[in-house]
Protein 1
Amino acid sequence: MLPRAGLLVNTTSLGMKGQPPLAVDVAQLPAGATVADLIYVPLETELLKAARMRGLQTADGLGMLLHQAAPAFEAFFGVRPQVSNELRRAVEAVRVRGLQVTVSLGVAGLKPGEDLQQLLSRADGALYASKRGGRNRSTLAA
């Protein structure tokens, strides 16, 4: 399957600090493939390093983190931050000093006849169930 893949995305915790690496041989990917890793601790995972060494396009998980954080920041402070290269550089600078971030995820798939608001409500419920379960959790909505 990998020789035909144009995009490989790691959405697991494999490769995260304290977790085993993701065992994927990026040498099997075609030359024009892109590799994305949603992990942001460490920002450059072994998967991304291997992909870069092959000359593949890569994307780390910091963008996802920033876009997920924007609505929470707005809820607390009443202002939605602009996710920009400047914000990314600022967060990267803080991370260098040792800040560690955790994430909880709520995941929901669209059910037949369900509208967007219902989907988001179920995903939000799953998110808060994850947070009650501890750090670095994910929950699939019923």
Protein 2
Amino acid sequence: MKILKTDDRIREIKNSAKLFADMEEEIKNHDAKIRNDIAELNDKSDVLSKKIKSLEAGVMCYPDEAIFVRDKINSFLSEQSKRADAKLLCELLYMTDNSWQDAVESYLNTQRFNIIVEPENYLAAKKVFVSLGDKVKG
């Protein structure tokens, strides 16, 4: 066993203390990241649980962006004292023969989320859509 001088021991202890402090900081950072990841996963789980409950109740889930645009158009129409009639195309379609469901959905793809309004509300709806700019893809 090697015997160290007092100054060497103090330096060794300080180095060890620094290593432990660094390790403690790294552990705290990992802990914070894990806690953040858990919170995000819990939030995602809550969102999915709500979607499942909606689907079980017969309420369809549509992309947030499509709902956002539809609701903005309807709000604008209401403010203009017009009938808020904007609907997603898929809200208007009803398949009487379920064997066609997959074929129609495949054909329409994302177009099934197009927004449909009465002809007299088209310009107002377009104005709202354009005003949303980068908030939506289009």
Protein 3
Amino acid sequence: MATAAIQVPPSNKILPGSRLLATVPYPQVTESTLPTDPGKVASDWITSFNRLINHGDSAFSSLFLKESCWRDLLCLTWDFHTLQGPEEIAASIGHFAKECRIKCINLDTSSDHKKPKIASADFAGNMKAVQAFLEVETDVGKGKGLVRLLPDSEDGQRWKAFTLLTTLQELKGYEESTNRRRPTGVESDLDNGRRNWKDLRIAEENFEGDREPVVLILGIVDLPVRDGNRELTLLNRRCGTSGSELGCTTEAARSGHLNHRPKSSRWRQLAKSIPPTSAS
């Protein structure tokens, strides 16, 4: 008799570099233990992290709670890692000592909501922690991260990592052409041999001027329209109807009628902004 295939819930599917983590109880945190200066707590932890990460020191485990988890995406090595518990984390850092690429981490203070603050550390919002967004520096690129810190009641209320995420975002020397690095196209009629941005794009696609592909990627999947333009930038090729022919002036890139919907950071700028003239 045929049996129906068992459907595995997405939450239980093991992806590359992932595993099912052991269930652990949440640490007990009271309101009285929360700091008045989350920034100092985060800065002190980061200072200790940077001091110990490059030495493979066994003391590195003292930065993490016994219930801790570290999810890393390509910042430690060219692989995904899910590490649980201070012993495993310290052992892995010691194992990766010669190839560990993380050089340092720093606080990401690029916006107010990323600055260290008191935030929920569980789904129900019952447990509060010091949350800080991170900037990660590796020997090959830069990344982002997030850490949630809790006091360790078994170690004199010392603040330690409960969860840590590190993820590589870009490679040095191969940064995405976004924001201020976007191509500007023709800035005047005399520039670039009077070739507009579309002509330049066609020249790129045809590898004119003795240009050669840097990377050949096989097996790319179809992407939503909103992501196609990013892949076009990364792969230097057209990926379906991805809006690759969109462009905007510098002024349009910096402002718009929908202030809560910023313009794409990857749209090509078609012209320099013209400063307003003063009234005569």
Protein 4
Amino acid sequence: MRSNQIPAVFSQETIFNFGHELAGQEVNNKMNRSKIIILGSSRKNGQTRKAVDKLKSLSDFDVLDLNDYNISYYDYEHKNENDDYLNLIRNIISNYDILIFATPVYWYSMSGIMKVFFDRITDLLDNEKESGRKLRNKSMAVLSSSIGDHLGDNFWIPFIETAKYLGMNYIGNIHTIENKLDTDELKKFVDLIDKEITK
């Protein structure tokens, strides 16, 4: 996607156009747009997507797939400022209070595309400081997916510490296993996130 094109769909229910002229537009139902799942996987229809779809079916969360956007690696000289990242993160920050990151486990860590997204948060500390400040008091949660129940606590450290650094509240996390989605556990995860709205 070229940066002069308007990224389109978050979910079937809620569509946001991301042209500069629409930045900051008001959306009537804040509660329905306050939580978003940000999916970062090398496969659009893999096991992590199945877990995300199940989570969405149990909630009112919107879904954004990072594969639909052109987001390049962090650049100290900010030569990539015209890719999709800045418009995307500005609109996420403007429209959502709770960010749920969904990633497969690749080599004991988050996916590459998710790591690039997190690395680009540095842009918000360099030349987009006003947007970065708006992350304060928002909340973060994480869903991971792999073939087994072998994930250690260290996996969550980049998410927990990033939330802490940015002044965000870390709600919690859930690990899902390929072809063994636990609906009850996912419901508990949704309830945990929904409680955050009432605080």
